[in-house]
Fold each of these.
Amino acid sequence: MSFSIDAGLIAEANEKAAPALVGDFDHLARVLARRNLDAEAIAKKIAAFGVALPTWGVGTGGTRFARFPGPGEPRHIFDKLDDCAVIQQLTRATPTISLHFPWDKFDDPKELREAAAARRLGFDAVNSNTFQDQPGQEHSYKFGSLSNADPAARALAVAHNLECIALGEKLGSKALTVWIADGSNFAGQSNLTKAFDRYLDAMGQVYAGLPADWQVFLEHKLYEPAFYSTVISDWGSSYIAATELGPKAKCLVDLGHHAPGVNIEQIVSRLVRFGKLAGFHFNDSKYGDDDLDAGSIQPFQLFLVFNELVDAGERRVEGFAPAYMIDQSHNVSDPIESLMLSAVELQRAYAQALLVDRAALAAAQDANDALGAHILLKQAFTTDVSPLLAVARRAAGGAIDPLGVYRASGYRAAKTRERPASGVASAGIV
Ligand code: RM4
Ligand code: MN
Ligand code: MN
């Protein structure tokens, strides 16, 4: 196995931290037992939770104004695998990665599959990119891709999505995520009806190219880069498109892609109810598609999203199997640190949601006890589940304190020496 952090370092740090953790865990287990909850059983569920890492997230992101590269950035997909492997090694919460084409284009699928397997990483959904023109591209996406008024540009976008499926198949992916930047900046610039129809027609061609066991995830986004209208702007447009396309098409919720103040957990509940929830791009935001670290701005909202997911899981909703992925842009932090902490925050929200007394909640709701119901959620949300997360991580072979071990390992400094500045590995302004 080619994990990069010395296993001895993790073991040593864990040994030092273990006595305090055992004490904290025992205390929490007693608190939970009084609520008829089994801490060990919950820790097992947390250990089974996994979220996919975005390959574009391990490089520095960038804003529309500038990109300030960090030291030791990954230069290509194999460097990205190394960084993702560190995150998985220390957190044991990120067993898969999500590739983005053409950024992650590879020549030899076997080489890539083997490198990933050696690092114990699998492949989640692959992402297409028709929001940038590539050097020498024959038809531009400046005025849209799958919904472009020019059939030649549309055909190119369809071909690219089909190529992404072919690449993903070689790796064992089972889904394609499609986010398009198509839209308009001026009222009247684009015929709103025709643009949506062209999108449906082009996506129909992509859908027809899906292998039998594949799905396509439609990702909506309210605005940016288009500021007047966006073709797949909201979950309504996404739901209509997914329904028109067929059962293999579902709706992906990126937490930063909604109007301010929108009740995202209610959108999640609707999509679950009608069998159309594809999964998530997790991140956090204050204003728009900020792509900040999951749980860093609105942890209560994240908990409420997981509350819906746990509720659906416990109701055993048929076909409920959302794909969990992170989609963030790291500009002022070490991406590895941000992704480790984000994965832990997602586990935290999940753990808190597992603590909700659902029978009592249903009773309070049926009795119209508004505050009684609310308090049940707050009780779960305000419980410090950190010892549960650390115990789960340790049992899975990870670090009790991932950040501490990472900082002590000198990984970034070593990579800074190994990887001369390149600046190719990131998503740039998107
Ligand atoms: C978009 C969207 C997509 C991601 C790009 C990089 O805003 O979130 O999921 O692929 O950014
Ligand atoms: Mn996204
Ligand atoms: Mn986004």
Amino acid sequence: MSTNYKVADLKMAEQGRLKIEWAESRMPVLMALREKAKTDQPLKGMRVAGCLHVTKETAVLVRTLRAAGAEVSWSGCNPLSTNDEVAAALAAEGTSIYAWHGLSKDEFYWCIEKTLEFKPTLTLDDGADLIFTVHAKHHGLAATIIGGTEETTTGVHRLRHMAKDGKLKYPVFAVNDSETKWDFDNVFGTGQSSLDGILRATSVFFAGKNFVVAGFGHCGRGVAMRARGMGANVICTEVKPTQALKAVLEGYRVMPMDEAAKIGDIFITATGVKDIIKGNHFASMKDGAIISNTGHYDVEINIGDLEKLAKAKREIRPNNEEYTLKDGRRVYLLAQGRLVNLAAAEGHPSEVMDMSFANQFLALCRLAKDGKSLDKKVYELPPEQDQELALLKLGTMGVKIDALTAEQKAYESDYSAGT
Ligand code: RBV
């Protein structure tokens, strides 16, 4: 057994193994890729450092990377998202892993540093903290790393800025930008898992509530859709006119946060931007308002402002803190403003992570094969891969679709045909 790990308690390994097996039974696409990789060994000789939420789904990815021949060292990408049972199971089966629930900021970066000790050849990020650490502190290592991948919107944004400034030292695949990732994980995954997090932390009734979604991007859209499905009156806030217009035409009320703050019962931020809910908003909220965030970083809700307005605070339920304001009103902050779907629930369901992580796996295989000939920029995965993965996924769900005949294909590309 490996000792290159630090987890909360190795005794939880058996529970973690059961969780991972459950996820494996729901991730047929990734499992099929694993089966093939066992013989092909596409990651043989690769050392993969990963920094991504330690969940049962991530464990399925980690097992797949190892089955494909890679050595792996892992850390979590959020202080509150590690599932300690899963981390224990991974450590027990010999994976180098540094992750436990409730890390301090210093511990968070210590874990990342530990995963760099084996000098990775590939990096895998969710939010770009690992790749930033390599770029800021390990210049020699950055020069030898073949390439990296990035799982989420926030990370991809930052990496694109870095590449634009000529600061990126190795190629990165924007896994997030694959259609089989953002059009599914970000929408349907975030939609379900965020409501799951709010429900576990509150057990509140959604029907008839004013449910305020800040940001109508892919994540916000998914959350709004699912909240409406449970009978909530959904209000959206936006800064981008086209997104606001889409929300209006979907039938949601759209208004500035200053107004939404006064009437909302439940709030969730999904913007990637800081200070979306701040002092003046808390000051005008109704007694009992519930506030949460599903964006990658904990900056969307200004907790400092809330602390200043509050005269008392207590944990009323797990992942649910009651702040009593000076005038007696109570406001409930979920999961300390960290992503409520991973901190208060289990993240996205396995079925949807199946495609996200199949993309991760294929991106790493591509880097192992061709990474040395790529430029130091942010790449997208080829759109054909999306079609292949979607077809595989449909097959596992027992769904068949049509295919164009040769005649139909010829018609499609015939620009001489008209009325
Ligand atoms: N995410 N992972 C999970 N169950 O492992 N759930 C959500 C899981 C990822 C998701 O792909 C998103 O882009 C990212 O977490 C945000 O940090």
Amino acid sequence: MGIGEDGPASAREAPEAVVSEAQIAVHWREEDYYQPPASFIAQANAADPAIRQRFGEEHFPDCFKEYADLLTWDQSWDTTLDTSDPPFWKWFVGGRLNASFNCIDRHLESSRNKAALIWVPEPEDEETKEVTYQDLYRRVNEFAALLRDFGGVKTGDRVTFHLPMLPELPVSMLACARLGVIHSEVFGGFSGAACGERAADSQSRILVTMDAYYRNGELIDHKAKADEAVEKAREEGQEVEKVLVWRRHPGEYGSQSPMVDGRDFFVDELLEVYRDKVVEPVSMPAEAPLFLMYTSGTTGRPKGCQHSTGGYLAYVAGTSKYYQDIHPEDTYWCFADIGWITGHSYIVYGPLALGTTSVMYEGVPTYPDAGRPWRIAERLGVNIFHTAPTTIRMLRKLGPEEPKKYDYHFKHMTTVGEPIEPDVWRWYYEVVGKGEAAVVDTWWQTENGGFLGSTLPALEPMKPGSCGPGVLGIYPVIYDEDGNVVKAGSGRAGNICIRNPWPGIFQTIWGQPERFVEIYYEKYCRNKESKDWRDWPYFAGDGAVQAADGYFRILGRVDDVINVAGHRLGTKELESASITVEEIAEAAAVPVMDEVRGRAVEMYVSLKPGLSPSKEIEQKVAKAIETEIGKIARPKRIWIVPDMPKTRSGKIMRRVIAGISNFADVGDVTTLANPEIVDDIRHLVQSEKVAQGDVPRELTKQEQEEIAAFGRAE
Ligand code: WTA
């Protein structure tokens, strides 16, 4: 989208002069607003505009008492925000609470027999299971007793999970929370090696896994990955002493992998001893860590984002109430995997803290056909629906007319995880939502605990492709590379930052506090000696532009992270996995535009001297990535090239190859040490893509800018 006749005044006035890379001029057509339906407004949790004032900067940080008051505290806090050791902020200091108590016990009196979770198995002929708050209470207590007495874990220990989408996952999380044990769930689709690396990083002695689960009609053998994980952890110096294996069908083992004597145990068998055991919830300081969630960053080693108990739980409860509009009587379905932060915050902790019914689904959206989600919504009476653009695109592609066939009605819908194209947004609103729902586009990150940017669903109109303003109590700003504020309506993009701390922000990177400061705070810190939070803006690592109305449009990562189907994959991780193949000398990962997954990965590799390209080597690279990271990271293409374009100091210029893969401008190559290689690579890659009919559509201006900026963090 260039500057058109219909462009907004601000975009037309944007400077045409060449600007620095961080100040890329961005121009697009302003989208029209959509107003929330009157029926939604009439019942919304946040319907009084005064809420904006209550969370205004003049009331910070005390405004967050409103969120903390949604919880039951064993002891209330004396300091709302302690800034004595920046940027290691402490929230609700002096307060004590237990997360499991808040998500379960306190609802028993009023809602004992109400479904806390409704679990939908992937096979359509298998029965849906309801887990009432009473069932959840019993199961969490029993597993907590097992973890404590058989597992020998104590408050503050870490336990790694590698669990798929079954109720045993929230049960395991809440059992740890009950004991004050820190859980670290690794997404079930990740490889055994990725799980082992994370178990080692968090020094876990216990791994909780499952024998098997259904995905796309197939019973996947999952326990096999536990053996790889234990092996990998051992290589990294961490002994996993016990592997606790839940069985998808208790009593029946669905894996081919042998149980290792003295190390592997079936949870359903062990539980016999713990029937009806009750474990007192351990009263934890607000600042005690609740869980770790690993994510990708600019270097190979994954970052264990450490989230707190009090601040985190208050933040997800508050945002679930006002932004997800959850009432206790709703049937809420967040169609994400609990293995990602979205599932932790908005399938488990937020909804259960509010005492609602949270739906979870085991399998893929389009199994056995693209009508599946809408059948589930109809049958269960789901009225709040939450998913990611990649799922929306896939459902639109495979079943554009399907939603109309089913009688469900959503009052509220969410999109999260990556930028959504206005066109896809409109299909979501009109066809999935039948024009009846308020839609929120929520921008945030693993590091943040909960939403950062979104409209308040009853109070602020929606604008396709924009997440909206900062959420309650979040004051964002866009800075250029030199720390100057990029003004709203200037039509210029920059780095989006949050000026203030908030209760959901992660506390540190597990075991790497220096990296925490360096990655998120160093860039825009005004004074390292200062104990004033105003001197410590949080650098989110996303490019963004702010329209004159204050709404933000997120443009994607500014670091070397590729967002595939809403999942952050670090280029360094992909590259180090490729280099484990002995034939490979160098590797570079770049994003290509993909109609369904948003972005896909293409790998460029060069071979050691004397070797020649072969399909076999390509397959080895694909396999290595699958083993080290997981299927989700499998590259769309692998190109074996004679050499990589490099700077004179020897750095691979990813933006050049990204330009080639996307048939876009490669930018200035005159400063390369080997400019002649660019044409060779272009010829190799593009002629094959043309021959295979794999030429992407022309990129929008915004996409061209993303590609041109790729890899600039180097
Ligand atoms: C991107 C997922 C545009 C962004 C909750 C961010 C988004 C990264 C949106 C975090 C959105 C997330 N619009 N981009 N609504 N939501 N992103 O850690 O680049 O898996 O930095 O957290 O996803 O991904 P993560």
Amino acid sequence: MNSSPVDATTTTAWNKLAAHAVNFTPDLRGWFAAEPQRAQDLTFQIADLHVDLSKNLLTAETRSLLTRLADEVGLRERIEAMFTGEHINVTEDRAVLHTALRRPAGASPALHVDGQDVDTDVQAELAKVFAFADKVRTGEWKGSTGERIKTVVNIGIGGSDLGPVMAYEALKPYVQAGLEARFISNIDPTDLAETLHDLDPRTTLFIIASKTFTTLETLTNARLAREWLWRELVASGSEIKDDDARRAAVARHFVAVSTALDKVADFGIDPANAFGFWDWVGGRYSVDSAIGTSLAITIGPENFRQFLSGFHAVDEHFRTAPWSENVPALMGLLNVWYTNFLGAHTHAVLPYAQYLHRFPAYLQQLTMESNGKSVRWDGSKVNMETGEIWWGEPGTNGQHAFYQLIHQGTRLVPVDFIAVANPAHPLQDGEADVHELFLANFFAQSKALAFGKTADEVRAEGTDEAIVPARVFSGNRPSTSIMAPELSPAVLGQLIALYEHITFVQGAVWGIDSFDQWGVELGKELAQQITPAVSGDAQALKEQDASTRALIDYYRAQRR
Ligand code: F6P
């Protein structure tokens, strides 16, 4: 499977898609008029997700060529290779098994990979996380002064932060009363200072989340948090006189999540209070592993199980559904169509659900750390565009900011809209149901993008001829609408798995290893080299390029 990727550009489907693109004239108005079944034909139900692809720029021919492309690049085999634990993360020589994290207990046939009984290990670790979560939730777990925990502070970055914070924010209505989670990720000391300033150390539990347990930001923040704990406990009346007392405080207020449990012990956290996962879980695919401990504590094991079951439902769909109705495959292939044939550079995700306000940020790591690559998994250079820039903000805020460009700009920006039918907070404004006012915007935006407004329609409104051009909407701007009954833990799991697999499909077509992230390394190395120069080491400063040296000089001159 890992020998050499198929060069997609050499396939028949790719070449036919290229020819198809040359004469491609999107006409959503015409297509909807000519095909009364279009909305139904292109709307799919996947678990609780209702996904309408009909306002995308595709004809029956586009769809058939895209699914042929999937076959020609070996997408089916690649999916099986992932699910069965082949080492498709080639540059790190690892299996890619986040799908194993959400297999139900007792799933059959059992999954054994590289000599590991994966199912047994996953269930055992989950049981450990859940037992701990229950102890915190019931108050059985106490801080060093005997008080129950009220605030869980997750310290992590990248995949050890974005997933947990996004999911916590999304599932706030499920959080147990009297518990809250906070998140520290940035090494900017402001992040820690602002997050901790009003916390009571006696009721605070830190979760140090780091797959490698070497990440500079996380370890620095963990040390600062430990200092804060000792200092603030003393300030609130505890006696912490010696190392034993310090260790005892850490034992009640610090737990860790990592694949490197030896390093956790070196930090001073009792391995009994550490939760593990495995190198076959990529950081950005890890929210459903022990990395989700902050979530398991706050929403509880039962809701966390629902979350996992949501992922699993989409995994099964992705693995088994034919391309014609395989939603992650179709959405991933559409993204290839837009990126490689219609010239799109970015993709917007616009949730009409305030609780999903961190979802676009989460997707940025998932998609861009996965597919922002210029070489294929065999080291050869790619010969097509890869990885779009993913971005977004919740509606309706975005409408009053950047939607102008999406509606009338010169660039093609495919959009995914996400909304739920039932709000967590049903409110009335007089006679009006505010969620309905909100959703009217959700429905209106995809309609406006797809069908636009012609010059004649603008004129018919009595618009002054001079400003008619400015008020025309071209239409034919593609969007996908995703709806669900409500933002439950299961639905959130389904949404995440949907985008994980969309990302996978694109990576498979482009022939890239979507599971490594070497592009983040150089900056980290240079930061280490530059640190002495920033602190005043003349030799280290001399070794810098002229621009960097001047910037550091400026900093040193300004710093009080
Ligand atoms: O720097 C990128 C990265 O390696 C991400 O892939 C990862 O999610 C993040 O850093 C945090 O890494 P860790 O969980 O090992 O601290």
